[in-house]
Amino acid sequence: MQPTREFVEFEVDDKENPRRWNTWFKGFIVVWICFNAFTITCYASTYLDAVPYVQELFHVGSTVAKLGFTFYAGACGIGPLFLAPLSELYGRKWVYVGSALGWTAFQVGAARAENTATILICRFFAALLGTASFSNAAGTIHDLSTPGLFQSSSTMLFCMALFMGPVIGPIVSGYIVENTTWRWIFYAAIIAGGVETAVFAMLPETHHGIILMRKAARLRKEQPEYDHRSSFELERPSVVEALRITATRAGSMLISDPIILAISLWQTTVFGIIYLFFDAIEESESRKAGGVRTPERRLKLGLLGAIIVPISLLWFGFTTYTSVPYMVPIVASGFYGFGFLAVSLSTFYYTIDAYTTYAASAFAAQAMIRSVATSVFVLFGTQMFSGLGPRWATFILAMIGVVEIALPIVFMRKGEALRKASGFASLEAEHDHVDASSDEEKQSVDDEKQVWVEGQTA
């Protein structure tokens, strides 16, 4: 006689449910992930202060030396493509640990490098392996909370960490180079990475499917007369299927999903320009729109940012005359920072709300375009501004920004239709996670599972 099949779900006020953990503890998890993201982006731009020393020591030109930045930024867009699906299939914790450890190990190689090739290779693989927080932070935030203040605050903090890193990086590296040597840029990274790896190893798993799968395994040992299973366990793909998903999911979203493609291009412009200005400030929005919580409500802030970006660029470019007080373009760059962060927050919130469970893969797809495209900005930025002059160079960027104002308007008007056209977003709308916070919701989940069991045993 076969054991009776029993599905395992979180009970009401289940202490194993990450959403029921202490708020301060959940906050610490988010802060630590944000710190990791900050570290990764910070060390993208810190390398630029090492470029003159790499040129002199290894006798290479400026463009070759700057490839250390290009390789790093490009790899930041590739790494999440396999790190995101791995976290969705095998949990968050050990992906974070392995990612932080890999990033730290290749910093050691870069610190001890005796030629340019070693630096370029180590920089590439450090970013390739170290960017788990770029994509998986969205999944972790979803694990820990439902839409509300905590989720909104966590997303805002993550955006600030992700995009403030390039701003703080030159300050950190400038201090290091002034007081020690350029190699201490990498030694400092090793220290930070080692601490992050150790803390990640002590944090618990947050992936609901993995937690429930382990709970089911524990219950099978305690109650052998029942075949305890989680839905995640039954739906979890084989290793071969997992590799296929790893290779194709984010890429498929990138190619076939107009939302992901458009948002990626939108983010790319403002993200790339930030490496030219190194300025940003913060703002966020998280309110209901008439009681209807659609992802498109997030785009109001993005529309404001999209309008501010070209205005601030024109302001900056055409006030760079020597006759204009220096504070005028500096204030303009501050307004650009506001517009930049407004777009970033808006698109990050929108992606989480629209893709929920698949948010990690969505972030990975966006990161691939954003990082690969912006990796070349540092190579042509100097030539562009010196060749065209600051006024016409920023004018071109501003005109691109003007065209992109149409994106949030289109999304706000046609967003629902676009999400229906997206297989990933529409599936999420149909199979959204139900948090067992009430007896009625719990009963609804149980009823659905019972129907599934009856269908399997019929």
Q: How does this model look, in words?
A:
This protein is mostly helical and 458 residues long. It has two domains: 18-215, Growth Hormone, Chain: A; 251-434, Growth Hormone, Chain: A (Up-down Bundle), CATH 1.20.1250. The protein is built from 19 helices and two strands. Strands 1-2 form a two-stranded parallel sheet. Helix 6 (132-144) packs antiparallel against helix 7 (149-179).
List its salient traits.
Growth Hormone, Chain: A, disordered C terminus, 76% helix, 458 residues, mainly alpha, single chain
List the helices and strands and how they pair.
Layout: E1 4-7, H1 23-45, H2 51-58, H3 62-90, H4 93-111, H5 116-130, H6 132-144, H7 149-179, H8 184-202, H9 208-222, E2 226-229, H10 231-235, H11 239-256, H12 258-277, H13 299-317, H14 327-355, H15 359-374, H16 377-404, H17 406-421, H18 423-430, H19 439-457
Parallel strand pairs: 1-2
Helix pairs in contact: 1-6, 1-7, 1-8, 2-3, 3-4, 3-5, 3-6, 3-11, 3-15, 4-5, 4-8, 6-7, 6-15, 7-14, 11-15, 12-14, 12-15, 12-16, 12-17, 13-14, 13-16, 13-17
Question: N-to-C terminal Cα separation, in Å?
Answer: 16 Å
Strand and helix order? EHHHHHHHHHEHHHHHHHHHH
Segments where pLDDT lies below 50 for 5+ residues?
Answer: 275-292, 426-449, 451-458
Would you identify the CATH architecture of the largest domain? Up-down Bundle
Determine the fraction of residues in helical runs and give it as a percent range: over 70%
**CATH level 4 superfamily of the largest domain:** MFS general substrate transporter like domains
Strand order of the largest sheet: 1-2
Determine and state the CATH class of the largest domain: Mainly Alpha
Mean pLDDT: 76
| DSSP summary: helix tally | 19
In one word, what is the shape?
globular
Query: What is CATH's topology name of the largest domain?
Result: Growth Hormone, Chain: A
